[in-house]
Amino acid sequence: MKAITKMEILGQIIDPGKGYQLNMNVAKLHTHTPIQVPVFIERSKKDGPVLLLMAGMHGDEINGVEIVRRIIRNKYNKPNVGTVICLPVFNIFGFLNISRALPDGRDLNRSFPGSKNGSLASQFAYQFLKEIAPHVDYVLDFHTGARQRNNAPQVRCVLKDPRSVEFAKAFNPPFIVHSNLIPKSLRDAMITRGKQILLFEGGKADSIEENIVHEGVMGVKRILVHLGMRSFKEKVTSDRESIILRSDKWMRALNSGLFLSYVQNGQKVRKNEMIGLITDPFGKVERKVKAWEDGYIFCINESPVVNKGDAIFHIGSSEREAYKVVSEG
Known about the structure:
Elements: E1 8-9, E2 12-13, E3 19-28, E4 34-43, E5 50-54, H1 62-73, E6 83-87, H2 92-96, H3 120-131, E7 138-143, E8 149-157, H4 162-171, E9 175-178, H5 186-192, E10 196-203, H6 210-226, E11 243-245, E12 247-252, E13 257-261, E14 268-269, E15 274-279, E16 286-290, E17 295-301, E18 305-306, E19 311-317
Parallel strand pairs: 5-6, 5-7, 7-10, 8-9, 9-11
Antiparallel strand pairs: 1-2, 3-4, 4-6, 8-10, 8-17, 12-19, 13-15, 13-18, 14-17, 15-16, 17-19
């Protein structure tokens, strides 16, 4: 009989067929109160892939937190093969303050690989790569748009990497968006270490949106089936084919004023189609916003007031690679 692989995480031996709630200790509040990052681990009796589900990289991106919470609540994280690690709130400091950044003002997703004695963000990144990352084969990292920038459900990967594309198609989101690796991001750090990772974007900050949560939960279930980790009684496959966006471009406001959007997230638009209106508040000026290219709207600025130069629509194209690729959350 094949021996079961020994697994030790955060100083705890992870026995086959057992579940654990551990804590990653990074720092303390200024009151000297310890702040712990909860880590939930479910290991089956059979060796297999190790899948990490993580959210809360930015403390105000609540949709992802709810996706991972719902996975745990419904026990979808209990595999028949392999191990599932859930990290519902990574940036616990930001979550306490409902803030994107850590108290030092740094973006955790631009702090990898970090260092033991660096900034707070750097220490978070270092601890994660030391304690969690070595045990992981696959990662699903859940994000949202900013407070007033609402993302259509999507996953981001490098389209030149066939394994990443296969992984993204297994998740089966409405959109798969090409996104090059960004230095010092989690995605860059994990791929450098030979791991497979998808970044999910959906909805906006400070919100729980049921359609986004549903897409995230269903994507996780499809990945679990794809990796052979477990099955489900209900159907998790989808008849839709993900739309692959190879390039993208932000449309920016050409003038300041009240902003009205005439399209919905995920909608296909044609070049020169009127998709919005920018007006002054006094009824004298109205300026039509027309699509610059054929493509799909996959992010909308929901602010009712915009300034000249503000990003208002993110349009992706499946036809060519002429635009600058998106940056991740």
